[in-house]
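This part of the workshop introduces the protein records we will be handling. An example says more than a description, so a record of this kind follows.
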Amino acid sequence: MRAVGRLLGFAIIALALVVGFVVTRITYREPRTDDAIVRANVVGIAPHVGGPLIELHVVDNQSVNQGDLLFVIDPRPFEVKLQKNKAALMLAQSEVAATTKAIASASAEVARVEAERSYAHDHVGRLEPLLPQKFVTRDRYDEARVNATAADAAVERARRELERQRQLLAQFGDVNARIAAAEAAVHDSELDLEYCYVRAPFDAQVTNLNIAQGEYARVGQQVFALVDRRAWYVIANYQETYLDSIRPGMPVDVYLMSYPNQRFRGTVQGIGWAVLPQESRTIGVLPDVQPTLNWVRLAQRIPVRIELEPPHPDRPYRMGMTAVATVLGKRAAAAR
């Protein structure tokens, strides 16, 4: 009986060692954690323009599709601004047309005074040889020279006026700056008017809706949030000792507390590169290191992002669900 008892004890110890070895091997080959949570991207909806909400087309926790109208901000001030800028554009076009005609008139004036100047200088040239022989009087010759000088001044004045009209036109190649500025103002007003009608940027779930019709919406201030339902993922925190067994692309089995005994498929998207250290920080340019050290050192947990398969209509995902994730390892990845 004593020998049988010893054999039984040795067998139990050996079995425990074998079981421990197998469990440890499986644990490292297929890491598992229950420190996981379902996540989705959450986007705050904030208007580009401010004003009172005159229409609210959603309620809290409602499903919306891309392009659905969420709410409307009073568009009347922006309609008035748009009409004002359109009128300014028409005025700019009219002024540019008038300036173009003024340039044509100034060009003609330059041509006229240049012709008069040429005639005045030619007249002086004809009278100058006649002055020594007394065929013309000195007064007539001086009058011709004064007329030539006046013609030079008239040409200079006409050229300056032509340059001033060209600058007023503000034409640079094929682009007129005045018309372009007015068109930009109209486009800006059209955008502001369009921003009054806020639509869903993607398929999502409305959450944290705490407003009502008539409330004033401010520029850049979030009104509510949308949960992006196009992509769901799990953030699973694994001990750093398991990271050598986890690679991007490995398949994952995910179980959710909300749906017992229901397996969901996932794929490792990536492993986190940084976590916030609790025992040290940086103050200014110098690190602040604690002088004490715990005797028991716990392995740090590193977040691993797991992309989930699309949800079943009867088993939708919800952000914050508790999950259990098991990475199936390299062999399962190769098999799949």
Summary: Helices lie at 2-29, 76-127, 138-169, 177-195, 329-335. The longest helix spans residues 76-127. The CA atoms of residues 32 and 326 lie 4 Å apart. The longest strand covers residues 224-239.
